[in-house]
Description:
Layout: E1 5-10, H1 14-22, E2 29-35, H2 39-49, E3 53-55, H3 58-64, E4 69-72, H4 79-88, E5 92-95, H5 103-116, E6 120-122, H6 130-140, H7 170-173, H8 177-192
Parallel strand pairs: 1-2, 1-4, 2-3, 4-5, 5-6
Amino acid sequence: MREKLRVGVIGVGGIGREHISCYPDHEKADLICVADKNPLRLEGVKEVFGVKRVYTSYEEMLEKEELDAVSICTPNYLHKEQVIKSLEHGCNVLVEKPMTISTKEADEIVKKVEETGKILMVGMTCRFTPVYSYLKFLIKEGKLGEIYFAEGNWLRRRGVPGLGGWFTTKQMSGGGPLIDIGVHVLDALLWFLDFPKVERVNGFAFQKFGFRAGDGG
């Protein structure tokens, strides 16, 4: 086994650049290459981060490079295909949340993970923040007593990312705030409680974009 993992990044938009910026500081990983269909983004990554090997096709990158792991930082609707192909090429995968846009696709990914024996991690970053980690510790140690009710909320004022882009296109994002931010809240609650068996689910959802200056009215 190599001393350092050879890593590639698929998708070099906003969150992809965050991944790229972190790998050079990781003592057990080497960022080898990146892929994005936008040549201008690739040029920017080469200039800012000094990444020398770039591809406009992630399939070509997987074929040509001998990688141990990939970060997948693309729009949600692309996750399933890219995760599965990366697993098939022998890569462990870190994919941005949500894993994909439907439970059917998620089941397909889990099946492929089981077939390949590779590691899949979804980027649920809240678990690694000090506040969340400390709360998990308090619960585990029994400092808060018996937890019989938990409620999670997340409020972000006018937090509509990329209005008019894939974030606000349901076929590409898979949904609205529940998919974008709500997954963090749900994951945190389940994690705090050691993923209890779910017996019943009730829910409702709605969507409305907030008023913006210049919209009139």
